[in-house]
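Continued from yesterday's entry.
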Amino acid sequence: MSDKERLRNKLQAILILIKAFMKDSSMTYIEGSSEIVESGAYEWLPLTPGQALDQAEICKQYTVILQETTHLKLDGELLKQFNESGERVLSFLRQDSIVWQSTGPEVYEEIVRELDAQLELSQSI
């Protein structure tokens, strides 16, 4: 199995965990944000203790995938783009910043787009 196939399999496997986690994640509208951004901005609501454990495990697994991938044969600019995409996904998973999406499933779709971009960038492997 090639490095690219292994990466694809790992990302597909973690997407299953991410989908379940995001399905149960909630956010709230930031009052007045639609005056600045058309659809408004949202902040994450606190996680339950069980969700926090799931979050920590998913972040840990995804970080391992990123670490395993960055040593592969990505050139400087591709590696930079890959790392930036990885940081965006981690920010969604850590729920440490405001988002433009109003639901967990919408955030999940954005994560899917980021992981697709990472797979595209990994075509250079």
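--- second protein ---
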Amino acid sequence: MNVSEVNQNMAIPQRLPANGSDRFNYMVSYLSDCQLQMVLEMDGHVNQQRLLHAMEASTIAEPIMGCRFIKDSVRPYWERRSDLASSGWCSLQLLSESDSEEKAVQEWLSSPIDIDADAMVKVRILRTSTKEIVCIKLNHLCSDGAGLIEYVHLLASLYSELAQKPRYVPKSNPEGRDQSRLFKEMGIPNGGMPQAPEPQGPTLPFTPGEPAKRRQAIRRIPREEWLELAQGFKQKGFTVNDVLLAAYMRALSQQMENIPEEQIKVMVTVNVRKFLPTGKADAIYNLSGVVHASMNQATGSFADQVKEVAEFMKNQRDNKEILHDAVNTFAFVENLEFHHTLKIIQDVRKQIVADGNSTPILSNFGMISTSQISFDDVKVAGAYIVSPAYYAPGLMLGVSTYQDCITLNISFFESNTDIGVIEKLLDTMLEEIKSYKE
């Protein structure tokens, strides 16, 4: 597939506007390493050349995937790039019987990206004699976690289509990222002021300094055990998010130094696509809002805490103001000259480090798929998402589910955060969650 010829024949613009959420995501690059990653555990071998062709086709279906972000000081934009073929964006690593698959996965997850120079997506195939693990990195500049899930489904679909029609070229979608059009059609006013920022809450102890040695701590609850737990939550009238948030708050309170429980805050990300007419976006981009939760109960059991959280979250599930505030935030950022927005986030970052406060984040990316994903005849046996590593004192817990196996993950930098604290935080969460089935 000659992407350059397709670009010309399909009249894909060489430049695409950067919308408000793109600019907002670039601001987030001052707070995290902007890596959204997914690990796919395959039950066989994929064809590397066909996967590469599927990645090329994805830059036609979703043109943003074939662009780089240009930081114009006034109005940044996306520019189509012609060097992807030589960028090494789809690589293969052969593993011998003596090689550790887990070590290879961790090394890839820990490897950095250059958000300005690297491709929006990078893939590493870790191949053994019988199976392989496909690891996908997506630059957070162009998408959120829900967009990563959409991209993996797109990639699997294109791979399967190319197996039947090697010269297949997908329909392009250069107009789909026009969020202002979508919001206008929905009758959402674009131009109101976003809510005033919430004061930052306490976080884990950290060591100031430059971030180095990215790590990720991961915990998984297997299918049968998780199905039993989830069914128990449902019977009690609680959602998975209710239990996760309560467990996260209690685990945080145990790991924080000299912080009263009633001061614990968590910022919960919300995929606001559920408020759209079709329940999904027209293209891959960021469309997330936030809910600020706080722990008001200083004493009591975990069951009491779940009830309190559930009562609070019940009033937030259908709150369209979350979408409206996200729209207003994106519009506010878009209406500023870009250098002003960067100055704002630089000042925010300095203040966070100086104060030592940064409200921890919970991002439940949800179900990766309601059914098993297939790349033609190769099935995805297991999958999980690895969230970005936030710069201390920032902290994000990422959660994802695939084939009824749930994965909890925190990415961090070893130079700033004690790995023992992160491991203990996740272990405490699992203990609380599993205790709730009694």
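The CA atoms of residues 237 and 310 lie 9 Å apart. The mean pLDDT is 91. Will compare against the first tomorrow.
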